[in-house]
Each structure stands twice: as structure tokens, then as C-alpha cells.
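Attaching the record inline, Q. Sequence:
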Amino acid sequence: MALSAEGWPIAVALLQFAAISRDGTVAQEAEPEQWEKSFRQVARAGFTEVDLTDVWVRIGDLTPPRLREFGQAAAAVGLTTPAVSLIRRSVIHAQNGEANLAYSHRAIDAAAALGAAVVSVGLHQELTPQQKEQLWFWTAPGHYDPVGDREMWKRAVSRLGELGTHAAEVGVLLSLEMYEDTYLGTADSAVRLVEEIGQPGVGLNPDTGNLLRLHRAIDDWRELLERTLPYANYWHMKNYQRDEDRALSRYVAVPSTLEGGVISYREAIEIAISVGFQGVLCCEQYGGDGLSVSAANRRYLKSILPESANYFPGTSRRLQLAPSPASRIEAST
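Structure, as predicted:
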């Protein structure tokens, strides 16, 4: 069934929720009432869907009883959980790749239990000490996947394909998040990776903002989206204001609202619809009151998404699934 503005799932990432609160409470070990309090903030901001971003709580590391309590805390305030994002858990990490792979498998099972439609993973790794010292971490160089390393590329294809097979078995899509200097760092490389994996339930998360914010020359965002959106099955959305003086090699980027940044999301949505994209959208924001900015971004997206479900001329190459209206975990209790 085609989606329109009224029913299109727009989730919010939980980047503003700390793993350890000001009073020292570890979110992973919090009582369900504390989880519900955080979820209530999301609901009060106007969201009905949430991306369970694992920088806050790692659902893959919750016991089954705790996972049920976590899902119930979201449902208690009227939130559904259509998406889960695993952050900096590269399955080809030199030291932690196998552990990250095992964690990703656990997270896929947990996502399925909560009724999620999609799990987003990537190849980006931990921030470096230099990045952690910056106001904006992307202004310092981070990890690079080795260019031309055939064995490492094959490992990425194999391990991500393994996750894709598992996800398909439990009825979840796997989405690969684009991120600079990884094998998902350019349109051509990301598309090639998806095509070599070769599974209909494995697609791209064309997080163009991850590339737009770099303080260096970048590819045109329109060309990137034209190339990647036919393979997309989920979409992290954020925007940046950007200034360039290429003659002097000077580049500056700072976070913006979706409406006020360099990317025209009105045009980006048109590109997406033209190729039949029907995935969950997710508002991300760095800095300040990111939840409120994300809420404003949700209102903006609602204003530019199609009013009618009949306007869908294209056909995506990726399987699209709408989120479950109620989690499987709720149905089983």
C-alpha cells in the first residue's frame, strides 16, 4: 500500500538521550519508569514513532524480560518502534569485528521481537581521541576503510550478507548507513556493496548529511541521492548549512534544520518518490535541543510529503515494509 503524508512513518533518533544521565543513572540498567519518562518526552514533541538508537539503550543486550519492559515503556506513551539503528558497530573492525557481528545478530532478534521493520547498520567505527576533542567531531579525521583491500571488502560483503539473511528470516529489513571514508562512503561504493550482497531485503540508508558536513570537497547531494535512493529502504535525514571556497580549500558546515540547510528535502523527496521509495524516515539532529529541532523537521516533512497515496510513479529496487502497528512483544504478553 502506498503511503502519503498522513500515514508516512517519521521516527526520531535518540541521539540527545545520554547513556548515562546527569544523576549517574545508566540507561541500559534503568527502571522501566525511567525509560517511559524519556519516551514521554518524544511523544510530547509530537512523534508517534521512534528509532531505538543504541547510543542510549542497546536492545541487543537486554534480557528477554527487560526487552519486554522496554517495549512496553514505549507503547505506554503511544510510540511504535519501526526502526533500530546500531551506531559505530562495524562488522569489519580489526579488533571488534566478530563481537560487533554477534551484537548485531542479537539486535536483529530484539528488533524483530519489538516489531521493528528495519535495522540500520554501518561500517563507521569509534570516534578517535582527536574527534572527541572537537565541538563537531566531523571536523577531525576518523577511521578509513582500507581502499583496494580485496579481502576486507569480501569480509564486509560476507558479514553484512550474513546479517541480511538473519534479518530476512525474522521479517526485518537490513539498511546500510552511508558514512564517510567507509565502503559506504560514496554512492558508487555503497551501491556496489548492496549489489554484491544481492539480497532484496538489504538496502541503503542514504544518510547524505553524513557526507555534506565534511570540511572538504564533497560530491553533489543530488547526484548522490539519484544514485542511491533506488536502493534505499530506510533514511536518516539531517541537514547542514555549508560554505565553500574551493580556491582556498576552505570548507565549513554546521547543523541546520531540514528546511534551512543546503539539501533541498523538497527536491530530495521528489527524487525518492520518483523511484518508489516507501521506507521509514528518521529525523536526526546534533547539538542544542535536538528533539525540538527534530519535531520541527517532522512538521516540515509532513508539509512536503505527497497528500495523496496515488502519486507514486516509480518502483524501488528494494523491498519496502511498513512498520508493524503494534510490536510483536506486546502481542505476546
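The chain is about 35% helix and 15% strand. Residues 10-320 form a domain with the TIM Barrel fold (CATH 3.20.20.150).

More tomorrow.
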